[in-house]
Design a protein that fits this description.
elongated
Amino acid sequence: MHIGKKIYGYVSAVLAIMEIVLILCSWIINSISPAMHVKSMLSSEGIRWFFGSFTENLLTPLLAWLLLLSIAWGTFKGSGLLNAIRSLCKCEWQMPYRQRHALLTVLGEIIIFGIITFLLTFVPHAILLGVTGRLFPSTFMSGLIPMLAFIIVVISVSYGIVSGEYVNIESVFRNLCEGISTFVPLLIVYIFAIELYSSIVFVFF
């Protein structure tokens, strides 16, 4: 974990330096060669853009996906389902009764979710298909990540309850929060990366 945070720190520092370099270069290029139509981030227009669009730049589907997947990861790991799957992959079949029963519950839920997804997506004139009847682009593809995160949360919570890992609502909520805290370094990198990308688009396009 310490090494991971160190890597995230270096990546964030590099992105911040690249942002500063871009700001200075945009000002220099705009001053030396206005004909290149490079916008300066130190001009009145650039400063207004930076402060005025900062929040808007962050509000991308990727941010929502990161938050939802982090919540899903927290429940998936904290419920014990991750360890159970690892045991199955290692062919360790000897498990307590409650864990085996919990895995069967998860399997049943996955089958149900699979049938529902098939009926909403792959049959003719399905609700989640696009207006042209295609899978891409479609409502299904737009909501794929949130749907996967929801399914992971549901089966993880079910496993935790049936296996006895979750004894009350507080333990469930704690795992939801722990998933977000685990992904906080990645969210910080996201902020630096999306602002750098948005700045490049503003300066050159």
